[in-house]
DNA sequence: GCCAACGTTGGC
DNA sequence: GCCAACGTTGGC
């Protein structure tokens, strides 16, 4: 069982949107980076936990937790010429991009800010705190996952 | 909106 | 296969 962090721009799709979805479930589509794609296609499994991270917004940081309910399958929007995610080089026979389905688990009372995460001495491995952290899907090891959850809850007490 | 850091593209 | 140019990401 692994842990992940998925980035999203809350103006486009936030953790509140995920919670409001029917079944509180949503396909995580539109990932167009090969390293992130490889995680979605090869490693993310049903039951894995996922931090939902809000980027490019007022409160940058981890907003809550979701759970993987369907493992990687071809992202249909790559075949849709009307979609901004359309990829003319992808075909159904050899899809290029993948997505997983995630389900809402919980929203933290307060976003755990990136600034706070960077200041935590035990958080050194997760891509967020590294230079040029541009991956939109990244692994989080067990130890850092637990510390981040603790920190997120502590800010609410 | 700025700009640094990074990934991708394409000419050679 | 190199690498400059270009586009995108994302914090500030």
UniProtKB/TrEMBL annotation:
| EVE domain span | 3-150
- Pfam families for this protein: EVE
List, alphabetically, the InterPro entries matched. Answer: 5hmC_binding, EVE_domain, PUA-like_sf, THYN1-like_EVE
- CDD domains reported in the protein's UniProt record: EVE (cd21133)
Tell me the protein's name.
Answer: Ubiquinol-cytochrome c reductase
Q: Which organism is it from?
A: Alteromonas halophila
């Amino acid at each position: 069982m692994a842990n992940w962090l998925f980035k999203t721009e809350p103006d486009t799709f936030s953790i509140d949107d995920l919670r409001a979805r029917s079944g509180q479930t949503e396909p995580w589509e539109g990932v167009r980076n090969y390293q992130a794609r490889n995680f979605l296609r090869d490693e993310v499994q049903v039951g894995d936990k996922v931090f939902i991270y809000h980027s490019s917004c007022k409160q940058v940081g981890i907003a809550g937790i979701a759970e993987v309910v369907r493992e990687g399958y071809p992202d249909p929007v790559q075949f849709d010429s009307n979609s901004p995610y359309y990829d003319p080089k992808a075909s159904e026979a050899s899809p290029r991009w993948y997505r997983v389905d995630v389900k809402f688990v919980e929203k933290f009372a307060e976003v755990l800010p990136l600034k706070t995460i960077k200041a935590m001495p035990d958080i050194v491995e997760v891509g967020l705190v590294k230079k040029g952290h541009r991956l939109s899907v990244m692994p989080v090891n067990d130890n850092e996952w637990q510390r981040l959850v603790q920190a997120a809850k502590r800010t609410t007490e």
